[in-house]
Amino acid sequence: MPHTTILDKKAHFVEQNIYSSYNFRVNILKGVSFVASEYLEHKLSLLPDLPGCYLMKDINGKIIYVGKAKNLKNRVRSYFKSSHEGKTARLVSEIADFEYIIVSSDKEAFLLEITLIQKHRPYFNIKLKQGNNGYPYIKITNERDPQIKIVNSLLKDGGYYFGPYPNVYAAEETVNFLQKVYPLRRCNGFQNRPCLYYHMGQCLGACFKVVPEEEYARQIKRIKSFLNGNVGACEATIDSENAKSSC
């Protein structure tokens, strides 16, 4: 029988306490199941049956993952009530705390998730992707009449780039939203008559008139603010537009 030293016993005690603090069990065939601590269980019991975004934090209070949910209670609890493998298993093993933000709709949750990811750059949203190739960016072009579009690569062309986004759908939804709230140019340029998008309020009118550079600059400033996480200003703009349309 091998000799056991006091140091060995201390090491074993520390190891056991580390596993107890995370409180998880491993099943090689079914993946990894995680059991929440009493602190997390209490917070999980307070989650609402409402749409929103959740922010997972590590033991140092750093945001490591941002997600969205139609039902916050069901989605967040699923991390600790289900078996996981790979990246998700590693994520859950590092969750020490979480916060959540309630919103009024799935659409709002989607937009908020994107802005929170861009603002906090959580490790498990950004860093664990296998490179950035193939992930879309949102670009504001460097032109007299700028456009906002989706691209797959970064170029040194004077344009503004935001991303990468988790998938094309996320980028497309964001661009579609911004084109309605803060339009730039959606047409192919001057054509001596207003384009369809101008009539829809999604183009400033470079198709038939000279749009002041100052007007583009104001819109670009608002777009950049939104993409950098300032959702409040955008919500105020939407509320103002809704108030006008109801008059």
Automatic annotation (TrEMBL):
Segments forming domain GIY-YIG: 49-126
GO terms (BP aspect): nucleotide-excision repair
InterPro entries: GIY-YIG_endonuc, GIY-YIG_endonuc_sf, GIY-YIG_UvrC_Cho, UvrABC_protein_C
One Pfam family named in its UniProt record: GIY-YIG
Keywords per UniProt: Cytoplasm, DNA damage, DNA excision, DNA repair, Excision nuclease
Annotated GO MF terms: nuclease activity
Presence of the UniProt keyword Transmembrane helix in the record: no
Superkingdom of the organism of origin: Bacteria
CC annotations in GO: excinuclease repair complex
Protein name in UniProt: GIY-YIG catalytic domain protein
Source species taxonomy: Bacteria, Bacillati, Bacillota, Bacilli, Lactobacillales
